[in-house]
Each structure stands twice: as structure tokens, then as C-alpha cells.
Design a protein that fits this description.
The chain is α+β, with helices and mostly antiparallel strands. It is built from six helices and nine strands.
Length: 201
């Protein structure tokens, strides 16, 4: 149960990247969540009222906003520099339990697969939660396959996938590790591929 609700006034010039975030809730034991505006009351109401919070809460709110802005800047502006600045050199990345990258260079290669395959891709964060040194997020990715996606030639098809991610942070707020979960088969089917039954002979 929420102990207190913090109303976030999103100023366009400063927080334009997180335009879909309408509120911040502070829960017990320091749990913080940003909620998508479609799930809350009209933003106009939030802009009229505000509730004070402690310095600790204020720092956590700033951290959540920074992380949200960083994730959307990396994906929506294809900003590799932003990723490097926000992570450590030995940043690790896992997809559905399988390690894909053991450092920044390998993670950048993975990001470029999507940036090349889906140049118009856009990520929207529906909900994000900060608890201790972990940043949890539910995301949607939209795009059109107009470039080579690894070994897959362009199909011209649009995709709409969603998933969850957990980002581990160090004491300085930099990303150490990211675990991503989404339905890879769904992505391939949206590109026009089908699952072939096994040969039982």
C-alpha cells in the first residue's frame, strides 16, 4: 500500500523525453514507480498540485528520471555515447537468460543490430520501478524492418513487441548488468517467419 504519492510536474524543456510519464509514487521501503499517463488522472490535475518529499526521496526521483531519459535517449535517438556514459566498461547483457555481451563493445554491437534492422524504432516505457540498486522496466518497441537484422534481410514489415528488463546499478548509478526478457518467436513471426515442425522420421 502506498505511503505517499508524489506528483511529478513534467517540464517539457527539461523532461521532454519522458513525456509519457504522468506521476511518481513512493511506496514502502523506498520503492518508487513512474506510471504511464494513460493509467493515471489527466496530467493537468497533476500540474496543479504537489506533495513535498524528503531529500532521499527527491534524489531517488531524480535518479529514476535520469535513467528513464537515458534508456529512451539510447533507443529513440540511437545514442551510443549515452549508453557508454551511463554504463561501466564491463557491462553485461542477458537475453532470456542467455548472456549476449560481457562488455560495452559487445553490448553496442547488439544495439546496432536493432538500430540497423529497424532504423525508425521507438521504445516506450510503460512502467518503471526503482528498488535499491535495481531498475525494473516494462517496455514496448515499435519499428519497421527496412535494414539487415543480423543475417535477416529487410522484410519491410512492422513490429510491435514488449518485454521486461532489470538493470543492475553500481553505487554511482551506472549500469553494470541488464537482463531482458521478451518473446523472440513473436518478433520473428511478425517479420513473416514461421516455426517449422520437427522432422520425426
Amino acid at each position: 500500500m502506498a505511503l505517499r504519492t508524489e506528483i511529478g510536474i513534467i517540464r517539457p524543456k527539461r523532461f521532454s523525453i519522458i513525456e509519457n510519464i504522468a506521476s511518481i509514487r513512493i511506496f514502502s521501503k523506498g520503492l518508487i514507480m513512474l506510471a504511464h499517463k494513460k493509467l493515471m488522472l489527466p496530467l493537468l490535475i497533476f500540474m496543479l498540485f504537489g506533495i513535498g518529499c524528503s531529500t532521499k526521496d527527491d534524489n531517488e526521483i531524480r535518479q529514476i528520471m535520469r535513467l528513464t531519459m537515458t534508456i529512451e535517449d539510447i533507443w529513440n535517438h540511437k545514442n551510443i555515447v549515452s549508453f557508454k556514459n551511463a554504463s561501466i566498461n564491463l557491462n553485461k547483457k542477458y537475453l532470456n537468460g542467455v548472456q549476449l555481451a560481457a562488455n560495452q563493445l559487445e553490448t553496442v554491437s547488439y544495439l546496432n543490430l536493432f538500430f540497423t534492422g529497424f532504423p525508425d524504432s521507438t521504445v516506450k516505457l510503460d512502467n518503471v520501478v526503482l528498488k535499491d540498486n535495481r531498475f525494473y522496466l516494462h517496455w514496448h518497441l515499435y519499428g519497421t524492418n527496412t535494414g539487415n537484422f543480423d543475417s535477416i534481410p529487410p522484410t519491410g514489415k512492422k513490429i510491435n513487441i514488449n518485454g521486461y528488463a532489470t538493470i543492475l546499478l553500481n553505487k554511482n548509478g551506472k549500469m553494470i548488468q541488464e537482463e531482458v526478457f521478451y518473446n523472440e518467436l513473436d518478433l520473428l513471426e511478425q517479420l513473416g517467419y514461421t516455426l517449422k515442425p520437427p522432422n520425426l522420421e
